[in-house]
Amino acid sequence: MTRHVAVLMGGWSAEREVSLVSGAAISRGLRESGYQVSTIDVQRDVGVLLTRLYPRPDAVVNALHGRYGEDGCVQGLLDILQVPYTHSGLLASALAMDKPMAKRLFANAGIPVAEHEIVRREDVMAGDVMPRPYVIKPLNEGSSVGVHIVREGDNDEPFRDPAWPYGDRVMVEPFIQGKELTVAVMGDRALGVTEITTNRGFYDYDAKYADGGSIHLVPAPLGKAAYEEIMRLALLAHQTLGCRGITRADFRGDEESVYLLEINTQPGMTPTSLVPELAAHAGISFPEMCAWMVENATCD
User: Fold this and answer.
1) Which of 19, 37, 51, 147 is deepest in the core (most CB within 10 A)?
2) Alpha helix (H) ranges present in 113-255?
3) Is 29 marked active-site?
4) Which one of 62, 144, 214, 264 is the catalytic residue?
């Protein structure tokens, strides 16, 4: 039986604060389930992390969000150490974080995705790269970090900021009208569909994590056929990338057609997060979900 669990949290990505909240919630859930828990605020020093991982824990919960924690980097280190860890492995994590590559694989598997273009930051600054409204996304960020919707009449130009930290190329795709929908997948099972409503225009970073930033309708008010199809697509996306553990798939659309936006291999576990809500809807308590993650931890 797994007894000693180390929870990796924090990190130095744009999602550090959310990771700290997720890690603290998971730590509480594991302690309620009877585990011995050590928390590690991961810094940009691999030597320190290696020191903190000795004596070696029975398993690691990877509660890091964003680059370096969610893109295969930490997963590779844990593979080398042969310490079992939660969530997806190196390859699936890297593929999910690389939005253009993930979309190519989803499309090949028959999952509907929006058409997109990869353009230079200079092209965006020079004028519209496609008819409005359209969405601009960093190529490898999570939690809607850096996402910007360009609508009719907008005049703001976020990419003129010299401090823009997300690289010289971005992904541009049409803005998809309709509902914001999300599905949690746990192992080989889709737990349910949530519809998200927000007065912020779309489910951005603040809508995800600020109190009152969004309203979650669980289960989503959809017809039976549409509901089951979205769950099927979420599980297929999980399997297409070779994910394991828990993932969350985000969609936009309506009863007639939905498009997969992305799959999150390490979804938030904060008090406002979607996955714990969907697990509870499926009859799985938060401590039970945390224990399931640990008991299913593995290496590549």
Assistant:
1) 19
2) 121-126, 205-209, 224-240
3) no
4) 264
Residue 250: active-site member: yes
Give the CATH number for residue 152.
3.30.1490
Name the CA dihedral angle for 81, 72, 21, 51, rounded to a multiple of 10 degrees.
Answer: 30
What pLDDT, in 10s, does the model give residues 259-280? Answer: 999 999 999 998 789 999 999 9
| 41 dihedral zone (left: phi>0; alpha: psi -120 to 50; beta) | beta
Structural domain count, the chain: 3
d(CA 32, CA 26): 10
Q: Give the global pTM.
A: 0.89
What are the residue ranges in the chain where pLDDT is below 70?
1, 141-145, 155-166, 199-213
Query: Which of 23, 72, 142, 268 is flagged as catalytic?
Result: 268
* Domain hosting residue 69, numbered range: 4-87
Residues 79 and 221 in one domain: no
User: Are 87 and 244 within 8 A, CB to CB?
Assistant: yes
Among this protein's residues, is 209 annotated catalytic? yes
| 157 is a catalytic site residue | no
Q: Which of 22, 27, 88, 143 is catalytic?
A: 143
